[in-house]
Write a structure and sequence with these properties.
The complex is a heterodimer of chains A (303) and B (328). With 303 residues, chain A is mostly helical. In chain A, 74% of the residues lie in helices and 0% in strands. Classes of the chains: A mainly alpha (303), B mainly alpha (328). At the A-B interface, helix 4, helix 5, helix 10, helix 11 and helix 13 of A face helix 1, helix 6, helix 7, helix 8 and helix 10 of B.
Chain lengths: 303, 328
């Protein structure tokens, strides 16, 4: 009996292995024909490139006062103009972009990871563990995350970008956990999971070799949304003055611009680039997400 | 029905309990003595610091055993005592907050309800309409990805400072005293308009996209196809699809509350609008921790109430939940 199952299992594995390259080809086929995905990805990659090579293109030190005239408009010398204190805005911008990507990657992956672990455990185990984790999720969903971060950040004396990202990750995982739990719940009673269980696989292995691969497309999309969420969240915190205590970020740039009268002085070059970059990056991520959804789900493709 | 709401109330009760505990615990268990930090930042004469140190140690009740501090905190809370503000000294925190709440509520509730209504209608209308889908929905994505404060900054700068149409700060003209005159009301509305628009627009984009994505799932489901083959009109199919697609949107509203509150805080900060968000900003800038803790609690309470209202609305809107409750 067990042998028979093993043979069937082996056949199934063979089929999966054989099907895999075809599946990737199919994914690429539709991905390369999806304009939303291509445009979104292009914009995100553009900003990523700017983050990597941007700092090499500036001659000025970050946040040094009076490297140029005060409140000068953009020119060939100062690409994005200067601040009220004569700081170079372009330099702040490219370093701020770096902070944005750091927050997105660390905050987004931590939130996705925690959501996965908690969602899988709750969904696969069920019973009392599920009840408890579900309650925890519901409670954290109800408390506005912003309020918790507000009170924690206010009492942290020294805050770095990484600390901020970790705090955001620890608070933003809830909706991913909820969705992963629901999907795990529906997958765990499928035949192939039962089969794996009968053949004596450990729960941990079942989750990662049998259940998770079926949700890969979903996980990718969850990460993209978490990335965008973390970036917006960080901008909000930075803007009210609870961001990193040293260094720069796009949210801090807007905070400084408002505090030091950029609006009244008409220094639009100081507050337009940071907000625009956040909007472009997060917006492209969202559009990429719709594109991916269409690639993975044939029902949604345009006709 | 009683079981359903009973369960919800337990969750809300625990949440409130936890929130108050966090509010109490964070100042006490964070690294460093909060009073030292606070006084170091204020930086005054040695005698003044000494006097303030004793005052705050007493005010926080830090000389008592820890369990007693905790009980005292709850006791004070039930008496509406949230401490004394540093930044507007002898005023109690609760009085300052009560004055700010109406401004925040009058900004938030119309912005949430109108953007939810208009966004859903528009999203349902735009879905599967080729031209709209390809032109207006990208705009929706851009709107929902816009940081609240940036939209606020752009509005203040363009319509407030450059065009000089709208006032840029406050809730009413600085030369007016609150009264029931037309001039005062006109001034209130004029000051209210831009912050409202900026909250509305970001929300509108999000709901429109959410509805568009939801209704596509519904339009592809069996009941919609069945209706179509029966010869139902396009608008009838959409009507049924819309009702089904609205349910997850209502759940989404509950999930989004936290984000909306955060957006409102920064919007008020940009427009210097004297609600809770502006108080939070002032509290951070002046290291007024009592005020900050009070704002934290009031946000939690408002979000809990909103969640409860959404729970009730959900039961009213979706007959299936009622059916399930009767059966179980």
């Amino acid at each position: 009996m067990i042998e028979k199952i093993n043979i069937e299992k082996q056949e199934e594995i063979d089929k999966v292995v054989a099907a895999k390259p075809k599946k990737i080809n199919e994914f690429l086929y539709f991905a390369l024909r999806n304009n939303k995905l291509k445009i979104g990805l292009a914009i995100v990659l553009f900003f990523l490139l700017l983050t990597i090579i941007g700092p090499f293109l500036t001659d000025y030190e970050l946040n040094t006062f009076s490297v140029g005239p005060l409140s000068a408009p953009p020119s060939s010398e100062y690409w994005f103009g200067t601040t009220t204190f004569g700081q170079d805005v372009y330099t702040q911008f490219v370093y701020g972009l770096r902070a944005t990507f750091i927050v997105g990657v660390i905050g987004g992956s931590l939130a996705t990871f925690l959501g996965l672990i908690i969602g899988f455990t709750a969904g696969y185990r069920g019973g009392i563990i599920d009840e408890l984790l579900n309650m925890l999720t519901n409670i954290i969903l109800v408390i506005p995350a912003f309020a918790i971060l507000l009170i924690i950040a206010a009492y942290l004396k020294v805050r770095g970008i990484v600390t901020e990202s970790i705090l955001i990750g620890f608070i933003n995982w809830t909706w991913t956990a909820r969705a992963v739990r629901a999907q795990t719940f529906s997958l765990r009673s499928r035949e192939f999971v039962d089969m794996a269980r009968i053949s004596g696989m450990k729960p941990f292995k079942i989750i990662f070799t049998e259940i998770a691969p079926n949700m890969m497309s979903y996980l990718l999309m969850a990460f993209i949304l978490q990335f965008g969420g973390a970036v917006l969240f960080a901008a909000t915190l930075d803007f009210i003055g609870l961001g990193p205590t040293q260094g720069i970020s796009l949210g801090l740039m807007m905070n400084y611009a408002v505090l030091w009268g950029a609006l009244q002085l008409g220094s639009w070059w100081w507050f337009i680039p940071p907000g625009f970059a956040i909007m472009a990056i997060v917006g492209s991520l969202y559009i990429m997400n719709v594109g991916l959804d269409e690639v993975f789900n044939p029902k949604l493709r345009e006709f | 029905m009683r079981r359903y709401f009973g369960r919800k109330m337990i969750i809300y009760g625990i949440t409130f309990f936890l929130a108050v505990t966090i509010d109490w615990a964070i100042p006490r268990f964070m690294p460093g003595n909060p009073i030292h930090t606070m006084l170091a930042r204020i930086g005054q004469h040695a005698e003044g610091v000494e006097a303030m140190y004793t005052y705050y140690t007493k005010a926080f009740g830090l000389d008592l055993p820890i369990w007693k501090q905790y009980l005292n905190f709850w006791n004070a809370l039930f008496h509406g005592d949230l401490g004394t503000s540093v930044f507007r000294f002898p005023q109690p925190v609760s009085a300052i907050i009560i004055k700010a709440v109406p401004f925040s509520v009058c900004l938030l509730i119309p912005a949430i309800l109108l953007s939810f209504w208009a966004g859903n209608k528009f999203g349902a209308f735009a879905a599967r309409t080729k031209v709209l889908d390809n032109t207006v929905l990208p705009l929706g994505y851009i709107l929902t990805a816009t940081p609240y404060m940036w939209l606020g900054i752009l509005l203040v700068w363009s319509l407030g400072i450059v065009a000089d149409i709208f006032p840029v700060a406050g809730a009413y003209g600085f030369n007016l005293a609150p009264s029931l005159s037309w001039m005062f009301i006109a001034s209130l509305i004029k000051h209210w308009f831009l912050p409202f628009v900026s909250l509305f627009l970001v929300g509108f984009g999000g709901w429109a996209i959410g509805m568009r994505n939801m209704i596509i799932y519904e339009l592809e489901s069996d009941y919609s196809h069945y209706l179509e083959t029966l010869g139902a009109t396009r608008s009838l199919v959409r009507k049924y699809a819309y009702r089904n697609a609205l349910l997850p949107q209502i759940t989404g509203l509950a999930l989004q509350l936290g984000v909306i509150v955060a957006g409102q805080v920064v919007t008020e900060a940009v427009f210097s609008y004297p609600g809770i968000g502006w108080l939070i900003l002032a509290a951070i800038q002046n290291q007024d921790y009592f005020l900050l803790q009070g704002c934290f609690l009031i946000i939690i309470i408002m979000v809990l109430i909103a969640n409860f209202i959404i729970d009730i609305v959900y039961v009213v809107v979706d007959p299936r939940t009622r059916l399930g409750m009767m059966g179980g």
